[in-house]
Amino acid sequence: MALPKKKLQGLVAATLTPMTETGEINFPIISQYVDYLVNEQGVKNVFVNGSTGEGLSLSVAERRQLAEEWVTKGKDKLDHVIIHVGALSLKESQSLAQHAAEIGADGIAVIAPFFFKSMNKDGLIAFLKEVATAAPKVPFYYYHIPALTGIKIRAEELLDGIQDQIPTFQGLKFSDVDLLDFGQCVDQNSHRQFALLFGVDEQLLSGLAMGATGAIGSTYNYLGKKTNQMLEAFERQDLPLALNYQFYIQRFMNYVIKLGLGVAQTKAIMTLVSGIQMGPPRLPLQRASEEFTLGAEAKLKSLESHCFP
Ligand SMILES: CC(=O)N[C@@H]([C@@H](O)[C@H](O)[C@H](O)CO)[C@@H](O)CC(=O)C(=O)O
After folding, report:
1. What is its pathway (predicted)?
2. What confidence score (pLDDT) does residue 297 get?
3. Which value does ipTM take for this structure?
């Protein structure tokens, strides 16, 4: 059975894909990006080519090259580099999984195919199993994000008996607000053998209370430090302080969600906070407006002085 070299826990940044003004991947930025996450945000795990990373908007060749860049530049700095290898084509997904294994990625994750959809567990498991088999020594994570895939198969149902089918299965990325479903996944995981990674950043404290073992999300790129402080407070059972951090994060997220938060806007926020140029998103997404960026900047400044004077 494939076991992670170290248990995947804590925060995992769903990385953005830096792009040049002409829409090409800006590979030289990755090295700086790794150092920023580790040194400024205290985040040592990354999830590459996911939703935030516009993975499904990249070509297979680009996805391979980007995965390689993160593994190479993250060597001896990052604890886990998880590569999302989900695709609509099983063949593409398998070739990305095989490639992830060849370059020494720490794990692979797969989203449910969302054009021709499997309406039942058996079809989805069969697809996931075929992908996992292409990388038989690499820990496998299922990426549950029903709002984007339209696949309504509950995570608790999928998890039930999954390791009998997919021996490399190591955990779940749960990007949904259904805490009943998440709670039932935790309940099934009584021996804590799987990583159950919560994916709704603005509600992470609820996920932790239900038993999340870690979290994957876009905001850990630029709010990793604050979220780590929340995790520490929760660990010490200092709930008032943990709530204070969660409310800080929620106030900001609530503000930007109302303005229309997506990958383009996350790129703008990350550029603002880190100073690293993330560039525009790839079409059909369009870059964030200047008004959005100015608003986000002002909100961050005012929150900083009000919540942590
Ligand atoms: C729908 C979506 O993009 N969800 C994000 C969250 O991190 C999300 O951006 C955050 O909670 C703000 O709403 C992640 O769950 C997605 C993710 O980890 C990924 O990029 O693969």
Report:
1. Amino-sugar metabolism; N-acetylneuraminate degradation
2. 97
3. 0.98
Cα 252 to chain centroid, rounded: 19
Cα(262) to centroid of ligand 1, in Å? Answer: 9
Q: Which amino acid residue places its CA nearest to atom 15 of ligand 1?
A: 199
What are the pLDDT digits (tens) for 63-102? 999 999 999 999 999 999 999 999 999 999 999 999 999 9
Pairing state between β 214-217 and 45-48: unpaired
Q: Which residue out of 33, 36, 143, 248 is catalytically annotated?
A: 143
| Pocket perturbation via mutation, ligand 1, pick of 12, 45, 51 by most ligand atoms within 8 A of CB | 51
Amino acid identity of residue 51, one-letter, is S
Q: How far apart are CA 227 and CA 221, in angstroms?
A: 10
pLDDT one-digit tens code per residue, 168-222: 999 999 999 999 999 999 999 988 899 999 999 999 999 999 999 999 999 999 9
CA contacts within 13 A on the Cβ side of 211? 19
Architecture of domain 10-238: Alpha-Beta Barrel (3.20)
Segment 264-275 shows an average pLDDT of 98
CA of 52 to the centre of ligand 1 (A): 6
User: Whole-angstrom Cα distance, residue 51 to residue 87?
Assistant: 12
| Residues 6 or more apart whose Cβ sits within 8 Å of residue 298 | none
**Using alpha carbons only, how large is the chain's radius of gyration in Å?**
18
DSSP conformation class of 14: E
Among residues 156, 100, 104, 159, which one has the least CA distance to residue 132?
Answer: 100
CA dist 222 and 13 (Å) reads 9
